[in-house]
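idk why but the lab printer keeps eating my pages so im just putting this in chat instead. protein + glutathione:
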Amino acid sequence: MIDLYTWTTPNGRKVSILLEELGLPYEAHSIDIGKDEQFKPDFLAVSPNNKIPAIVDRDVGLKLMESGAILMYLADKTGKLLPASGEPRYRTIEWLMWQMGGIGPFLGQAHHFLHFNKGKAPYAEERYRNEARRLYGVLDRRLADRAFVADDYSIADIAIWPWISRFQWQEVDLADFPNVKRWYLDIVSRPAVQKGYHVPKFATDIPMP
Ligand SMILES: N[C@@H](CCC(=O)N[C@@H](CS)C(=O)NCC(=O)O)C(=O)O
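predcted complex ->
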């Protein structure tokens, strides 16, 4: 049994979608970051950086923060969605790290300036709007001749997809990135994605281009 500490955000949804894909039993615990619940001592004991998501694997007593580490751990625990060795493993990790170092932090800044604080910092809005488009361009080129970012559907796709689901906040029109749009819609059609998106609770329907 996995305890998942999460909220209705892209980083949280990565893990709930993966848990649904893997069919692992889990219990979701809401950490409402809008109410500063991430600073409560009980949560900090699991996630010392005061951010969701975090898990506790009750089977082995392991506490883990950082979504990339959690995705790798759960994939390795089950032997699914992350190849065990060789180039396919590192290709998957390469794109997972691209998400962790690029898509997550920079699209997060796009949300901050373009969605939550519109009009306050025109330079920052331009910077993160441009960076979002650059990242979408990289993803679009990667998906030009393949169905998924690595080889088969993997934790790399699961890490990237919830961020792309906020394309409206990033002022991105998916029609400008047809390969990303096709990949996005393929993944939307997966039952695990439709279920994992609404953990720990329903916030909005999945945005559709
Ligand atoms: N690198 C971390 C980032 C996690 C993160 O930024 N979580 C946000 C929600 S998406 C959060 O908990 N923010 C609360 C805070 O910063 O106080 C990961 O991938 O797990």
